[in-house]
Amino acid sequence: MTLRALLLAASLICAANAPAFAFDPVGAPDFNIKTSIDLKALTTATFYDVLTPLAVKDGTVVFYDFGESEKDLFAEIIHRFEAKYPGVTIDYHQVDGDQAVQQLIAAKQAGQPSPVDLFWMPNGSVRVANEAGVIANLPLNTMLPSAPDLNQNAATVSRGYVHNGVVAPFHRNQTAIAFDTRVVPEGTEPKSFPELLAYAKANPMKVAITDPTKGGSGSGFLETAILAMATKDCQARLYDYTLTEDEAKAWAASPCLDPVLAYFKELKPVVEFTNGNSDTLNLFTNGEINVGTVWEDMVFDFIGRGLIPTTIKARLMTEGEVGDGDGAMIPSGAVHLAGALLFMDYLMSDEIQLYKLSVNGSRSARTKLDIAKALGPDVVSRLVPQGQYDTLARPRIVGTVTNAAAARFVTEILQAK
Amino acid sequence: MTISRATLLLLLLPGVGYLVLFFGLPLALALLTSLGMGTIGTNQGFTLSHYAELFSNSVYRDGISYSLYISVVPTLVSLAVALPLAVTLQAAFPGKKLFLTLYKAPLVVPGIVAAFIVMILFDRGGEMSRILKPLGLSLPKLVRDDWSLGVIIALAWKSIPFMTLIIGGALASIPTDLALAARTLGASRLTVFWQIELPLALPGITAAVLLVFVGSTGAFAVPSLLGPIYPKPLSIWMYEAAYQKNDWGLATAMGIVLSAIACAVLLVYYRLTSGLHHATGGEVR
Amino acid sequence: MADAVITGLRKTFGPTVAVADFSLHVAEGEFVALLGPSGCGKTTVMRMIAGITQPDRGEISVAGQRIETLMPERRNIGLVFQSYALFPHMTVARNVAFGLRMRGVPAGQIAAKVAEVLAMVDLADHGERLPRELSGGQQQRVALARAIAIEPPLLLLDEPLSNLDAKLREQLRDDLKALQRRLGITTIHVTHDQSEAMALADRVVVMNAGAIVEIGTPRRLYQTPQTRFTAEFLGHTNIIPAQVQAGLMIAPWGQVLGAAPSATGLLHLSVRPEDLGLSPSEDGVGLVTEVTFLGAEVEHRVTVGNLRLRARSSGQGAAVLPAGTKVTLSFPADLHLLAKSTAP
């Protein structure tokens, strides 16, 4: 927690000094991207003047979208961008995130330029991509003029991996608990872990928990449980991003995880574990469950598209629930850097950040957006109540700890008959 | 006219060359990667650590047995349906033409679509459940269940027409006189099937079983959607190792192990069927 | 060993009548041939007797027992197929033993019977061979052995020799006849080959278009056929129309052929080529158009008016008359009248 406060303070200081400071390469003396632009001389003040003509000269930017249901969203965003910057066209591609990462790694190993200039990528692959050197070491957390107020934890950490700002937090998400108000009237829903266990026991097979090793809503639930049940001492290093893989495994093997596993042991016989995020939502639609682990934005999106009943509501557990997000990065082998930076800046702007919240329920890492003013009641009702979000949202813990805890979950809870 | 050795090799080059290049080479590379000497991921020099990790982890071992389970059982279920179906289709019956078209429908349905069909129909609260509920009936758990019934249904459903086609072809190639001769010698219809038709159709049956079994060992989409949360088949652990942990050594080791298991089961099958040939009263080949 | 009685057998396939009211009594130990062109219904009759095809009407009895309602596997009839239908995945011995195994005969007895039967067909040491290792003639003998191993009261042969070459066919024919005589099995043989039917059968049933035309011994049918169809089907013949005038039969070219005291009007005579004599003559009515040397015989084609006739002479002293020779015709004393005056 202290580290987080420090980072927050640092970001505020930096934000105060935002107007004109030159950009430093992240984690190395030089930028790892080949370009004619003098990045070290670039500032937020000269950002648009320098980059716009260069982008028009390049003419095109190749953009990869790893998402499964954001095609229409990006179509509109691209339309607006191209109207704002005539002469620059976005070449849009919908890709499989993991495969695209492998593609970038392969291209780098072959000494080839990257096929894409801007990649909105899965957060779980950031570690792999960065360690393979395919992410350009641009300080996106501070260099974008449209986004001087980024939550620095969101802007520098992805799934518990510290990347120090080379991935911009385009999309933030939030794990939550959803309940069907037809059978669980608002106000009577289980609000905490003990209440959830009691409810599950009283209503066997009416609660669905996503597999912690598969869907994010499941691993998020596991992390939330750890934060809720591990002792204060045990929690000391959960946000310590310097933790090695062996230390993480040791932590998971230690008694620190025991209360969490004990809880799941009691929970297992009375709940249904599902194979993924939409699996859980399916059961809501079939009217088979009353409570389930979800992603807030998935519930938002599915209600909007008529895929789950409008009676489904999401809330955060009183112990707090974790959230993360998928960010956008520029590959170190990108060819059209100027256009990519302009597009990146646009993606993080007020206009787009608010637009995507209203369309997709996708949260923002921008701290100074006036959300209540910008959204209508229909949108608001599909989200977790704003008050809960402000107080109960937590960042995700170190990813290696989650993986190690999930592995122990598999052997001690799932494997055991 | 005798062909020189060189000419012979040249003529074989396109076919064999294709096999070597697109099958043999990737397989060899996968094997090397699993032994730590590959080109993807880290190259540490010869090591058996990936195999050690695979076999020492009980979760992966469970994965191996589960992969076997969802390969063998759907194949057997398919055989149990396809064999009588193929025999029935040898005779004429009213509506046969329509039936011939309909039963082949699963052939054109991709595996993942078949999985979705099973999910929509048989999941908790799915279509079948909604139809049966007013009648006071309920289905057993077929999706995410311990016996993987949904997985078996989906995989078998897809394999049955394929098997029936192959076995039907094998049965049709048996001259009709043989069955008639056996009948006049005193064999009942059932005896004709067991002693005449089955042994003669055995090469076709073998081929069908082989193809279905091998296809099922790598099943990914179906168990991913319909299978229980634990155990998971090795194919899913492979995906996780390769794409989420970038551990290609482990992933290729799993792949090699799956292939080896498939080969072993096939060898066992060959042994059993040559014994079957002797038992049903004939030498073979 | 038993007799077979078939009464009123009938079979239609859709609009086609394949067999119309077939009745036959085969005596115990008799060898009967069903002879006729393709599509005459002979094979359908056989299949109905075996139980492979179901008749629309009719009764079949073997040794006094009605069998037409029984499944083929209960009829205890031996059937030898044209295609031999040997089980390719079984050895010769196991093929022959099949019927015995189906009857639950103990293994020791089976072995003995198989050996006995294989010896009968001269394949004693071929027991362990597979069918595909045998020649056509050998396969045929195995098929025969398999059928007689079960000691059936009735044996059916469906054109068993038609897949063999001429020389082999003749040889197997003799073997078959000898075997049947020796075992005395009541046999019905289906064939389209008239020389085969005549060589093997005690009686021949001539069939055409689903119906029986004539039944008789080979000799009777050959020498005195009742119908034109029979006359023309069994070997070659010359059909000569003759007008009866004053008790005499007059050929179209005026020659007196013989006496016909009780007949009137137009008659048809059947004269076998070997009974027709030719003598070269300056004012002969016939003209030799073709001469064919057949080895043992010489055949002359002769045109008389608008009749085309064949004459055959055999033996060393057979005269070869070149084409273009004018000839007179001579006829035997006992000419045969066809019972029905049928148009061609």
How much of the sequence of chain A is in beta strands? 5-15%
Low-confidence stretches of chain A: none
- What's the total number of strands of chain A? 12
CATH hierarchy: architecture of the largest domain in chain C: 3-Layer(aba) Sandwich
CATH T-level topology of the largest domain in chain A? D-Maltodextrin-Binding Protein, domain 2
What is the distance, rounded to the nearest whole angstrom, between the alpha carbons of the first and last residues of chain C?
Answer: 42 Å
Question: What oligomeric state do these chains adopt?
Answer: heterotrimer
CATH fold node name of the largest domain in chain C: Rossmann fold
Q: What structural class do the secondary elements of chain A suggest?
A: alpha/beta
What is the helix/strand order of chain C?
EEEHEEEHHHEHEHEEHHEEEEEEEEEE
Most extensive interface between two protein chains, with residue counts: B-C, 22 and 28 residues
Task: Give the overall pLDDT of chain A as a whole number.
Answer: 90
Number of DSSP helical runs of chain A: 20
Shape of chain A: globular
Main sheet: strands, sense, barrel of chain A: 10 strands, mixed
Number of domains of chain A: 2
- The structural class of chain C is alpha+beta
Give the class-level CATH name of the largest domain in chain C. Alpha Beta
Helix content of chain A: 40-55%
What is the H level of CATH, i.e. the homologous superfamily of the largest domain in chain A? Answer: Periplasmic binding protein-like II
Domain count of chain C: the total is 2
